[in-house]
Amino acid sequence: MTHLHAGLSPETIEKARLELNENPDVLHQDIQQVRDMIITRPDIGFLRTDDAFILRFLRARKFHQADAFRLLAQYFQYRQLNLDMFKNFKADDPGIKRALTDGFPGVLDNRDHYGRKILLLFAANWDQSRNSFIDILRAILLSLEVLIEDQELQINGFVLIIDWSNFSFKQASKLTPSILKLAIEGLQDSFPARFGGVHFVNQPWYIHALYTLIKPFLKDKTRKRIFLHGNNLNSLHQLIHPDCLPSEFGGTLPPYDMGTWARTLLGPDYNDENEYTHTSYNTMHVKHSSSNLERECSPKLMKRSQSVVESGTLKHEDQHENENTQPLLALD
């Protein structure tokens, strides 16, 4: 086993082999072939090219080397084209800190039954007098940078749940095509994460209308993994088990505490030595518990003031669609 697999369970290594075409015997050759392509893009500053960094791009593109290099190039090109977004790109930047404190994003302590990290967005919490959409996007990207350091998440991926309850038409009117395109470029086209699904719940009609704005920017593969559940939590539970979800989503866990993830990034262990900055890409590390509890659905006590919705019926993960669920979009 290569040192790049240190800390991974045999089961996860086997999953990477079966699902991502990862072969430990030729892993270093695969990485070097991607690195050798860098010379073809002298217009891009590749600020980090170590083995572990390139490996996450190979995993995100199932070890198709040309696709992995394209993603690597787009990652740095996106940062070059949007330099202002990545200035002071760390958790204690005032704009990022406000967004994190307001729960953008929420990150559950537990993972789902496939080992995927569950991210939450409570859209109605967007106070537009307090947080710009750009700062929320920056907070999400920074959070992903922290989380993607975990090799298991590089392999297992993420799921995102967006709760649109009480999200007003006025708030929605601020989601212009230009900023939605910026978000899609940053997440779909320029970041090495595997998104197994994006789930909308309690979405109003005007969120459906927003889809027509973003559709031209979405890849076909991307359109297949957004699911619009409306208020039908049963269809959500077919894909993410209730015992992995807080009560806002009909789950068996306590309500989500909006400050959970912000405290992780801004807690007493956060200091100048582990800040993630745009110029150095010295990535922050989140301390992961070695306990099995971290991978089970049993997070710390959480609380949230929003009303609790009623739990639905658990069904099998393989049922990706039914008459109450509309798949629209995927990120992978």
Automatic annotation (TrEMBL):
GO molecular function terms attached to this record: phosphatidylinositol bisphosphate binding
Biased composition regions of type Basic and acidic residues, renumbered to the chain: 313-323
CRAL-TRIO domain location: 96-257
Disordered: annotated segments: 287-332
GO cellular component, one term: early endosome membrane
Matches recorded under InterPro entries: CRAL-TRIO_dom, CRAL-TRIO_dom_sf, CRAL/TRIO_N_dom, CRAL/TRIO_N_dom_sf
GO biological-process terms attached to the record: lysosome organization
Record has NAD as a keyword: no
Protein's name according to its UniProt entry: Clavesin-1
Natural source organism: Podarcis muralis
Gene of this entry: CLVS1
